[in-house]
Amino acid sequence: MPSLANAILSSVGKKIINAVSGLGLCAFIVIHLLGNIALLIGNGQFFNRYCYFLENNLGVFVYLAEAGLALFFLGHMITGTAVWWSKLKARPDDYKKSANAGDPSKKTIFSRTMIYTGAVLFVFLIIHLKTFKFGPGMENGYAVTIGGIQMWDLYRLAVEAFSNIWYVVFYVAAMMLLGFHLSHGFWSAFQSLGANHPRYTPIIYGLGILFAIVMAVGFLAIPIVVYLRGGVA
Fold first, then answer.
1. CA–CA separation, 219 and 33 (whole Å)
2. pTM for the complete prediction?
3. Domains in the chain and their CATH numbers?
């Protein structure tokens, strides 16, 4: 029997890891979007309380979730690049075409540019983490007292970031690319896991398009709204 390592490194193994990690990241962005919507509620107290709860009440679960996310990102990035490289070596001329190949392959401009949209989203992730997660903290004056509890004023940090028109433009562009990435990735993940049936595949494909639109519009709308209202509820 082939070893576990050989199975993981096989073409099928890489696609399965890419699919599972991709669906895991899809679940994360849904939760992340729901949390980000708190930015639009009230004058920032609700959002800051929400962030404080995650950081101080969930304890070790937050660190476990972050470790899991890091594994998902690494697994998705590495296997996605490996699958793309294998296809490129096998069919170098195929990538010069961009027309929709139709059923059953559903090759589109979105499927052919997954590696590029993924690369841009990786750059966005680095900038996003630097701006927020590793941005200025309470020691830098970003502190607020709510209900007698002093906490990190992440709302102020977000409003300041989204008050910069160039950051908003970059954010919106990145979220549009996220939609392009998801529009193919969601359906492709299920296909890689064996969910390929004449009756159900069109449904999954349609759900993937809907999911991509909802996530992209949801994320890109937040910085636009914050920018337009200047952070005032």
1. 6
2. 0.84
3. 4-229 (1.20.1300)
Position 90 scores a pLDDT of: 73
Give the tens place of pLDDT for each residue, 152-186. Answer: 999 999 999 999 999 999 999 999 999 999 999 99
Both structure tokens of 43: 């004058």
Who contacts 67 (Cβ-Cβ below 8 Å, separation ≥6)? none
**18 and 79 in contact (C-beta within 8 Å)?**
yes
Give residue for tokens 């899991």.
68
Strand partners, 152: 143
Q: What is the pLDDT of residues 115-164, one digit of tens each?
A: 999 999 999 999 999 999 998 999 999 999 999 999 999 999 999 999 99
Provide the residue type at 64 as one letter. L
- Single-letter amino acid code for the residue at 51: C
**What's the rounded Cα separation, in Å, for the pair 146 and 18?**
42
Per the listing, tokens 């004023």 go with: 153
CA distance 226 to 163: 7
Peptide bond into 104 cis (omega under 30): yes
Residue with tokens 């962030």: 51
